[in-house]
Design a protein that fits this description.
By secondary structure, the chain is an alpha/beta fold. The protein is built from twelve helices and twelve strands. Helix 8 links the parallel strand 8 and strand 9.
Amino acid sequence: MSFRRRAGYRWDRVVCALTVVILAFIGCPLAAMSQSAERVYRLGFLGQTSAAALARQTPALRQGLRDLGYEDGRNLVIEYRWAERTLGRLPALAAELVGLKVDAIVTHGSAGSRAAKQATSTIPIVVAVVGDPVASGVVASLSGPGGNVTGLVLEEFESTVKWLELLKQVTPTASRVGWLDVPGIERPEVAEVWRQKEDNAARSRGHTIRRVTVRGPNDLAQAFATLEQQGVHAVIVPNTSLLNPLSAQIASLAKKHRLPSFGSPILARAGGLMAHGPDSADMYRRAAGYVDRIFRGAQPASLPMEGPTKFEMIVNLNTARALGLTISTELLGRADQIIE
């Protein structure tokens, strides 16, 4: 081989090497761009109340999503719609979210679940907390939802039994128990079944329930005046998204009327006497897991609904002292939190 041919051969090899290097430099940014072109998911949130009323819950949902790799503003957009305690607005708000073509909807409560399901049969719906989705007609069963709705169940009746048991231990002579009743949350026939179950549970423990209707904050003063006229010895405050934001007002009125109050953890933190129930923030955090599985391709129909795994028992000793009540060391020993 001549010198000229050898030099040409070397030059060809140099050109090939340079071409490979140049293509590599061009390809690296393209690969990086491909990796950064991450899908952005759109999640709808249908709220029965307001952002302030769910100040512990929605941050827990967002944290759960972050833990799973979804960050609002990066690969996730959350569209919030709030009914501001007016349940009649829920269907229109749900329709708005459907119109935005969200990838999934998170909601809470029976009314929110029904509104979301009526608005769409195709977009997946995750219920963060709900009482009885089977009786409400939202799912076919807890183990096999069978449609586009799944999520977490509060197991409300178990909480009712706990409240009645705590009431019996703290005020063993109490016989008449006040009950704040919020209409419109469940369908009338479902609500009546629940009332019968609650009445039977109370009766078996020597209590008679006296119900008063509360639709909003303006009804509370009259409700407690009615309970006083009926001579009740204590009051139970159901764990609903419409009553929870009013917990401070309810606890104050209960103390004013010298009534021990029992209900959800939110009530005790706001000044109620005692609480037992699921940690709602933990349930919203767990709801993020359902959203993640759905984003990855799972169908709601095949995702069983789960109950709470984290419960709280809270004793407010400040309120006990104000009411002249002594809480046994046994109950204090069982409490997850004692407020002094």
